[in-house]
Amino acid sequence: MNYGQIRTHFKALLNRSDITDALADTFLEQGIARIQRSLRIPAMESQHKYTFSTLTSKVTLPADFLEAIDVYFLNVALTRLPMREIQGLLSSAETGSPVYFAREGSEFLMFPRPSSGTLVMNYYSIFSELSADSDTNVLSDIAPDLIIYAALTYASDYFLDDRAEIWNAKFFTFIDEIQTQAVEQELTGTLQVMRPAYSIH
Questions:
Q1: Contact present, 171 and 37 (Cβ < 8 Å)
Q2: What is the pLDDT of residue 133?
Q3: CA 91 from centroid of its chain's CA atoms
Q4: Which structural domain, as residue segments, surrounds residue 36?
Q5: N or C: which terminus of the chain has fewer CB atoms within 10 Å of its end residue's CB?
Q6: What is the pLDDT of residue 197?
Q7: Within a domain: 192
Q8: How many Cβ atoms are within 10 Å of 83's Cβ, its own excluded?
Q9: Which residues are bridge partners to 70 per DSSP?
Q10: Which strands sit side by side in the sheet containing 117-125, from one edge to the other?
């Protein structure tokens, strides 16, 4: 469904004469924000690469960053440390391939400091914005009902609607279905490899 169709269906379910498009858009935006705080599925995965040519200790996170999945340098995974630990390490002048990282605001700090090579970050990203009626994104394609019922939970608070409990229950049902499906797809199917309990060398 495109954004205009989602808004129309939302307004039909809300069934109020005093709901404007502008107010509906506010509820839909709030609903999508709620979904992004909770949902973590493969459709939200993105990758960003940083290629270094000068000595550095930090990289800026992508604008659509939600949460890191893993970080690699020259195909070796970095270990995440608490900020207090990596700040202590950064007090030294050691350079080389990064082994550790930590997030500080909109940046990732690395230690040791690289001067060349490529850092690869896999992360969960926000969905592309829906604004024009013809707009679609991954979420509107796979779960328009989730967007609608997330928006209805906010509308119910605003209008003190007695259907709040029903709408909230449906929201949790839909988000659980999508998250469970994503997990099952990762754990089952022909692409899975059964690891032996032991190996003989």
A1: no
A2: 98
A3: 32
A4: 3-42+127-184
A5: C
A6: 46
A7: no
A8: 11
A9: 122
A10: 45-52, 117-125, 65-73, 76-77
The two structure tokens encoding residue 124: 């969960």
Q: Considering 77, 99, 125, which residue would you say is the last residue of a domain?
A: 125
69 belongs to a structural domain: yes
Q: Which of 91, 125, 159 is the last residue of a domain?
A: 125
> Are 19 and 81 in a shared domain?
no
Instruction: Give the residue carrying structure tokens 């003190």.
Output: 160
Residue for token pair 């890191």: 68
Does 73 share its domain with 55? yes
Phi, psi for residue 27 in degrees, rounded to 5: -65, -40
**10-residue averages of pLDDT along the chain (201 residues):** 98 97 98 96 96 96 96 96 93 94 96 96 97 97 97 98 97 96 75 49 46
Residue type, 115: S
Exposed / middle / buried, residue 56 (Cβ in 10 Å: 0-12, 13-18, 19+): middle
**Number of structural domains, the chain?**
2
Length of the chain: 201
Output the pLDDT for position 184: 86
